[in-house]
Amino acid sequence: MTYEQFLKLEKLTQAEITIKRGIVIGKRLEYDDFLKLYQLESFYVELRYSEDQSEVFAIASSASDNLLEPYLNAIDISELLRF
Fold it and tell me: Which member of 38, 50, 58, 60 lies 3.0 to 4.6 Å from 46 by CB, making a disulfide possible if both were Cys?
């Protein structure tokens, strides 16, 4: 699936596909919201969950890496350098 094809889908379908086929590459808290960043094909999708993580209430996506920035502080560089 291309990014353009993904954008044409309804938001609910985007979220379902992201959860089923995406790879979680980051998690973070923002205020009372829980966010997960997924890589899906060659693009990124961020899902914003309710506080109890029972439902997705917002979705953001990008073909560039701009969604990665808030997650970069959570990456442990020392772990990456061990290999």
Answer: 60
